[in-house]
Amino acid sequence: MVSLTSSRVLVPVSESGTLRSTVEFAVRRAIERAEETGSQSSVHFVYPLSERITVGSETEETQTGQSLLERVSVWAEEDRGDNDEAVTFETATIGTRQYLFSPGDYADVLVQYARRNDLDTVVFDPGFNPLGTAPLLPPMENEVRRSGIEVEEAPVQRERRNPLLVQRATLAQFLSLFAVSYGFYLLLAGSFAVFELVTGAISAAIVSVALWGISLTTPLKPVRTAKQIGRFALYVPYLLWEIVKANVSIAYVVLHPDLPIDPEVVEFDAAVWSALPVTTLANSITLTPGTLTVDVSRQHFTVHTLTGDSRDDLFSGALERAVRFVFYGRAAARIQTPLERRQAEDEER
């Protein structure tokens, strides 16, 4: 097991299948170190840019980096929990004044940032590869180590280049799949009669045996899952209330003699990531009368709105914040609205 002894840590980030686990490792170790020393720990997450940026310019890569750092901040806040005073976080984009090509280039900007901010350990994600081509990590680690800064590699399972369809399953995964299948069967049956209980158990067992090594293979984290389920239970009545309000508003428009509709298709980038949060937000928008999700491409939403009020409600970001609350926690709900983000982007241009 790698032992993280420093309380001031630098974590370079890039898109990878192990980034989430690396963030969790760095935050958990920082909390442990703060408890051991009685002093505050600090974790800096940085995104190295491979291209040189001129003053005031913004490119697709800078937007990608900002989006990734925001996502990492949300994960870190979730992992920190109630330990606000024990650990602080910083995020930054680095390497903006030069072109980064080689492992030595990346190591130089990391070392410079670490020294400016008095950081003495760099924790690398095993999947860190900012260029996405030739592997840079081993020579980069050596270059950073030569500068006198301690180097750690997060002890997380590496991502397979060609993941197997059938993976090694555990008893917890079997029981989870059985519980989900059994609950879904009883929900469709709408009855707890003995016949339904028995046939449901048989059906769930067959499904679990057949799909044991295929479905629900992601490691289950009970505490995080329980929190998300609890927050989702709060989200459901909120969504129902929003649906009721939208129904009343649309009913007024339909019954009004002038039929004051103003249909328009709008687009915006939502601050949610991964399939489940994006799907939840897209479905919530569609379930709310007056708005219909037409298309989703990663975080980019195309939505048909029926009235000006429905557009205002959409760009107010209420549903987006609620979905972020469900999947990322209370702190993640305090963000700019889609309208405010769009205005900020227009000002930067």
From TrEMBL:
<keyword id="KW-0812">Transmembrane</keyword>
<feature type="transmembrane region" description="Helical">
    <location>
        <begin position="170"/>
        <end position="195"/>
    </location>
</feature>
<keyword id="KW-1003">Cell membrane</keyword>
<feature type="transmembrane region" description="Helical">
    <location>
        <begin position="232"/>
        <end position="255"/>
    </location>
</feature>
<dbReference type="Pfam" id="PF01899">
    <property type="entry name" value="MNHE"/>
</dbReference>
<protein>
    <submittedName>
        <fullName>Monovalent cation/H+ antiporter subunit E</fullName>
    </submittedName>
</protein>
<feature type="transmembrane region" description="Helical">
    <location>
        <begin position="201"/>
        <end position="220"/>
    </location>
</feature>
<dbReference type="InterPro" id="IPR002758">
    <property type="entry name" value="Cation_antiport_E"/>
</dbReference>
<keyword id="KW-1133">Transmembrane helix</keyword>
<keyword id="KW-0472">Membrane</keyword>
